[in-house]
């Protein structure tokens, strides 16, 4: 996961991680995602939410975010490309 974050940052993607305690809501409560969008000062459609739990991704998509469920590096790159985001990302898998 750290390699993924480093690769995305190297391609000028902003990375934000949020916890529930400042918002009083938890994933997958839609209010959690709306508070994050408000905090960032962007529209939900401008956000890409990545999580390893399908229920969390589903809720993010329902409030207007794009969402990816992280399973492994190969599927992530394919899903990322399917969203029309192709930055020639290359990730190596640990053996």
Automatic annotation (TrEMBL):
Pfam families linked: Hydrolase
InterPro entries (alphabetical): HAD-like_sf, HAD-SF_hydro_IA, HAD_sf
Coiled-coil region(s): none
The name this protein goes by in its record: Uncharacterized protein
Record lineage: Eukaryota, Viridiplantae, Streptophyta, Embryophyta, Tracheophyta
């Amino acid at each position: 996961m750290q390699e993924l974050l480093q690769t995305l940052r190297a391609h000028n993607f902003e990375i934000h991680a949020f916890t529930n305690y400042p918002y009083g809501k938890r994933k997958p409560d839609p209010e959690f995602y709306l508070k994050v969008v408000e905090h960032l000062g962007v529209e939900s459609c401008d956000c890409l939410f990545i999580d390893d739990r399908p229920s969390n991704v589903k809720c993010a998509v329902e409030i207007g975010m794009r969402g990816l469920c992280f399973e492994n590096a190969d599927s992530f790159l394919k899903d990322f490309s399917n969203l029309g985001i192709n930055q020639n990302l290359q990730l190596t898998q640990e053996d």
